[in-house]
Amino acid sequence: MTSPVRAPAALGHSWLPRASCDINCVGMDATPSSRPVLVALRVALRVALVLLLAPGVPLLGVPLPGRTHAQRAYCRLVLRCLGVRITVSGSPIRNLRGVLVVSGHMSWLDAFAIGAVLPGSFVARADMFTGRATGIVARILKIIPIERSSLRRLPVVVETVARRLLAGHTVVAFPEGTTWCGRAYGSFYPAMFQAAIDAGRPVQPLRLSYHHVDGSVSTAPAYVGDDTLLRSVYRLLRVRRTVACLRVESLQLPGTDRRDLARRCQSAIQAGEPRRIGQHSRLIAPALSRSGIGYPGCEGARVAEVADGAAFPPAREFGVA
To answer: What tens digit of pLDDT does each residue of 174-190 get?
Structure first.
């Protein structure tokens, strides 16, 4: 999982991804006010539940049969503890090995939302895993670190991703290179798509968005600009319920041109979106039904409330068993 740019504009190379979103973009808008005591109890309960799940992280790296199912279940449990429901719609997920998964990037929560459906190794900012504990987590989860400020090291990262794909592993990347608030998005940088071309493996675009229960876009999970991780987590924990909409778009063949592949994936993800690159919108969707229909990008959702106790359909329904 990548993170927002926090360095001054004068630092880094001219191609360093930068978003126009900042802390002013985020909030708990459209969230009904709750009594402070209830909010405090909600936050405390969710923190306690997440802490109970923390010891299970090392088990995700154990190479045992069914590990993918365990990773998917673990991510669903984390989402439930955070008060997040998830709906899945769109195309069926192909039963393929070695797929590059790409999505827009808004939050640290993206990793759990995607992991609940398509778990894999994430390409993430190297400076997020410099500590001893985070370094251990990165090794367990087979994180592929990337130093966005160093173009010279980018080919090594692309080569690593290509090797993982050739070995049959799923790799998840966020081609925007930084986070956006959810009301606007950035362009897809083509570099990471070269790994799919070199490995001759397909790319699976995913459209991910977060919503309030009334269908309006939620920026509560966003992690942008000078926002801190702690503040972003606390903002999400305060919200009574958040819905993560994950739409599976058509699988893209690699082809031979990484820029064309990036454009195809970006078009697939952003088709029909009311937002524009670098612009913000405040559109309100119709009210949510129990099937998840009513959220932008979740039309015809097949899986509703996955993280809220509803039975998750057999993996074979999505072709991932």
So the answer is: 998 878 777 777 889 99
Tokens standing for residue 156: 């090594």
User: pLDDT, tens digit, for every residue of 237-262?
Assistant: 999 999 999 999 999 999 999 999 99
pTM: 0.78
Average pLDDT over residues 292-310: 44
Burial 207-225 (b: 16+ CB within 10 A, else e): bbbbbbbbbbbbbbbbbbb
Q: What are 313's two structure tokens?
A: 């359909």
Secondary structure of the chain in the HEC alphabet?
CCCCCCCCCCCCCCCCCCCCCCHHHCCCCCCCCCCHHHHHHHHHHHHHHHHHHHHHHHHHHCCCCCHHHHHHHHHHHHHHHCCEEEEEEECCCCCCCCCEEEECCCCCCHHHHHHCCCCCEEEEEHHHHCCHHHHHHHHHCCCEEECCCCHHHHHHHHHHHHHHHHCCCCEEECCCCCCCCCCCECCCCCCCHHHHHHHCCCEEEEEEEEECCCCCECCCCCCCCCCCHHHHHHHHHHCCCEEEEEEECCCECCCCCHHHHHHHHHHHHHCCCCCCECCCCCCCCCCCCCCCECECCCCCCCECCHHHCCCCCCHHHHCCC
Q: Chain-centre distance of CA 206, in angstroms?
A: 9
Segment among 1-15, 81-95, 147-161, 163-177 with least mean pLDDT: 1-15
Polymer length of the chain: 321
